[in-house]
Structure formats: C-alpha cells, structure tokens
Amino acid sequence: MLRATVGAAFALAAILPAAAAAQDADFYKGRTISILVGAGEGGSFVPYAQVLAEHMKRHIPGTPNIIVQTMGGQGGGLDTAIRMQNTVTKDGLTMAMTQQTIVLAQVINPEFARYDARTWNWVGNMSTIRNMLAVWHTAKAQSVEATKLTEAIAGATGPSSPTFIMPSFLNRFAGTKFKIVSGYKGTADLNLAMQRGEIEVRGGSWLSVELALPEEIKTKKIKPIVFASIDRDPGNKDVPTLAEFVTDPKAKQAAEFISAEAAFGRAFFLPPGVPADRVALLRKAFDDTMRDPELIADAKKKNLPLEPTNWEVLTRVTAKVIATPKEVAELAK
Question: At 254, phi and psi to the nearest 5?
Fold first, then answer.
C-alpha cells in the first residue's frame, strides 16, 4: 500500500509540470503582452523593447502578441514605475522597462517613490548601459576639468534622470559649473536642443548618442567627457568615470552608488503579485530569447549591444542599492 502511494505521488509530480505548462500555454494563447517603456522616443530604450517584443513571443507558450507602448521619460520614468507598482493588472500581461536610475531614485527621493523595486519581479536585462555626459563641439568647455572654470549649459529631462543627476553631482563634489536646464522630453529633444545651440552638454546613455548621431560622432561634433560606471567604458577607455573626479572617500562611495545604475541598463520587470508560474515562464522565455541567434543578429544589425544578465543579478543589485548606508544615500541626494 505504501509503495502504491509513493508511486502515485511520483506519477503526480511528473504530471504537474506538464499540466502547468499546458495551463500557461492556454493563458497566453491569443493574448497580448504590453511592454511599457518609461522613456521618450529617439533614445535606445524603445529599440531594445521592440527587438525583444519581436523575438520573445516565439519563446512563450501560446505565442502571444507583444506590443510596445512609449510612456515618456519625464521625471526619469517615475510615472511608469508608479503605474507598474500600483495600477496595472497583476496577470503577467504587462512588462515594463523604465529609466535605469529608478532603483536609485527610490533611495535618494523616497518622497516621490510610490513604488518598491524590491517587490518587482525582474525578468532580465538585455545590456549594461553606461550613462555619461557628452559635450558639443562649439562649447567653450570641452572637458569636465574645463567646466570648473567655464560655465556649460546642460540639458536635462527631470531630477530623477541621469541627465540631471550627473551634472548636479559634479557641481557639488567636483566644483564644476554646469548650468542645468530641465524640462526636455527625452534624448531626441536634447539632441535637437544641442544642435540648435540651446545647450552645450547632454546626458543619457552613450548608446543613445551612437544611435541618433553617428555622423556627429564620426566628425567629432560630439564626444563623451565622463561616464557613470564602476569601470571605464570599453569603447572609450580614455574617458574618466564619475568617481575619478572626487577625492573625498564618502563622495567616492556616493559616486559608486550613482554608478550602480549601469547594472539596470535595459532591464525588464513585472509588477508585484503576478502568479509565480507566469513569472518563471517569462523569465525562461527571456533567457531563451537572449540566446536566440535571430535576436542576436537583429540586435547587431540595429547597433544594439547585448550584455545580458538574468533576474537573479537584478534582484541582488536592487537589494544592495536599497540597503545603501543612510549617510551615503543622503550625500548622493
């Protein structure tokens, strides 16, 4: 009788995964997954989301349709983060990618953070993206050091965006004279403002510059002058990191805290409360997509570098960032 019971238990254990898979396939079949992008048009956020949407659907049981919705990048994608935390239906049909500073913003601007990134179900990150400041060729100050003597006008979207955070940090801890003008809708707006002569410096990812202004890079009309990353950018090894401009130990810790944003690059997440089986299914689909030769070839064709990390890395970095000592977080704030 015991052998029969144990045998039945093993048989049931073998059946359950297959039943769950069939249930998941039934759930996603004929449905549509939305990817909300907390950024404006013209940068690299939307192209990454579009490439993922095109190829990930083949790796999800039921082959659902996947659409991309651009939500705008004002406030560093804050609205998208809050919406994912509090408003969207927790059914596994809505993913999001928002500004890579959003986890840091929870620590340094808690009064605005009506979300908790520790509760999010991270799906995966397509690439580490290093933010920077880039200078236009007509600016009088052509380096960070030069901006200690000469004012440079820097465009920004909002206070929780890297376009604002980096020049603010350098003003406070490195003695630079960036004059920050906020209110631009995204990197496309910043590019136009730079070309019109409204601003001399713009932040964001270097990748967004490479995608939008390749000819301007080639002709040296625009160049990076500092990167927010723990190590130097592989393609611009002569450009210093944020931490290299400060000497105070606590300020260096704050610079490293700010630079942790690079780990969230082009990361995707589900809201809290999504059924665990659907979270696991989408995480596996994401990992499989990152190994898909068709996606790799498509990303290369569109000049979208891939440096993927899985949900476990994102979860671990999120916990570490939010556990930053109060004095370091206050200094960064």
Answer: -65, -40
